[in-house]
Design goal:
With 302 residues, the protein is α/β, with parallel strands linked by helices. It has one domain: NAD(P)-binding Rossmann-like Domain (Rossmann fold, 3-Layer(aba) Sandwich). Helix content is 27%, strand content 17%. It has nine helices and twelve strands. The strands form three sheets. It has an eight-stranded mixed beta sheet with strand order 3-2-1-4-7-8-12-10, sandwiched between helices. α2 packs across α8. The longest helix has 18 residues.
Length: 302
């Protein structure tokens, strides 16, 4: 879902707990002082050394960002074996999916099991998507109203659905999970939470915390406002605690988010990290190519 950059985020707040499961914990902002055990090589290194390329599943592969990630993985067949998970046959056809694209519902653990089985890494790009209520006339002023379809609200998709994916991947010994979320999660009053009264950032944050506590090596990418622009032509900016929302550089191209997802699988420096992601305007700064250095500068685990 496109993330609308809005008012500057306030300091981290203790969120109310509407959850039926374990209450959400505010970010602890711990700093990584050392790595866990011996440093492991990125997933693609074994393929470069003559081993089999790792199998990477992209969920939400029919979405606008998910399509890009899936395509990039397919283009790098020497490094990765790509898989996709979509919800409907139409979505599968839209990305010209073959046997490597599975149809399943992330709210149903049984339906996603075939896609999860045998993977080495998981990239989660599923998200609840609000719909505009019919009858809105922009010529009359005012703002449109939004709603979530029954059973597809953020609690079901962004919390339960993502938890199901994390649990399934952990159960088969996945080596890394990359989760794409949104900036704004430190502000309970962020406008995105009001869309359809869905509290989408609250539920996304709960899933992020669950992943961080899972013990599985993870990378959490909280993207700024997503733009349908070419990637690889801007200098990327990383931050924490929604500090980027206080600046003028609050957006990022979907293609750049997709590239960061894949680069996170290649470098040990990306593991056990969580960060906000945006970019400078095209023409300002130097386009980012050294992703290892980008990940190395990140010290936040959540």
């Amino acid at each position: 879902m496109t993330t609308a950059a809005a008012a500057a985020a306030t300091a981290t707040m203790r969120l109310p707990s509407p959850f039926k499961a374990t209450p959400f914990r505010p970010p602890c902002h711990r700093v990584v002082l050392s790595t866990r055990g011996p440093r492991r090589a990125g997933l693609a290194v074994s393929a470069a050394a003559g081993g089999s390329p790792p199998t990477v599943l992209v969920t939400g592969a029919g979405g606008r960002t998910g399509q890009i990630v899936y395509r990039k993985l397919k283009e790098r067949a020497d490094q990765f074996v790509a898989r996709g998970l979509v919800r409907t046959p139409d979505s599968k056809a839209k990305i010209d999916g073959g046997d490597d694209v599975f149809i399943g519902d992330i709210r149903d653990t049984g339906s996603i099991a075939p896609a999860i089985d045998g993977i080495d890494a998981l990239i989660i790009l599923t998200s609840g998507v609000p719909k505009m209520k019919p009858g809105f006339d922009p010529s009359k002023g005012g703002r449109p109203e939004f709603y979530f379809e029954e059973g597809s609200d953020p609690e079901q998709v962004d919390w339960i659905g993502q938890k199901n994916q994390i649990d399934a991947a952990k159960s088969i010994g996945v080596k890394q999970i990359v989760l794409v979320g949104s900036m704004g999660g430190t502000d309970i009053n962020h406008p995105l939470n009001k869309l359809g009264n869905g509290n989408i950032l609250v539920w996304k944050r709960k899933a992020e915390q669950y992943l961080a506590d899972s013990g599985v090596p993870y990378t959490i990418i909280r993207a700024g406002g997503l733009q349908d622009k070419d990637g690889g032509v801007r200098e990327l900016i990383v931050g924490k605690d929604d500090e980027i929302l206080k600046t003028e550089t609050k957006t990022v191209a979907r293609a750049d988010v997709a590239e960061v997802c894949i680069q996170a699988l290649l470098f040990e420096e990306a593991k056990f990290k969580a960060f906000d992601l945006a970019s400078k305007p095209e023409g300002e700064g130097t386009p980012t190519t050294d992703f290892k250095s980008v990940f190395a500068q990140i010290a936040t685990r959540f």
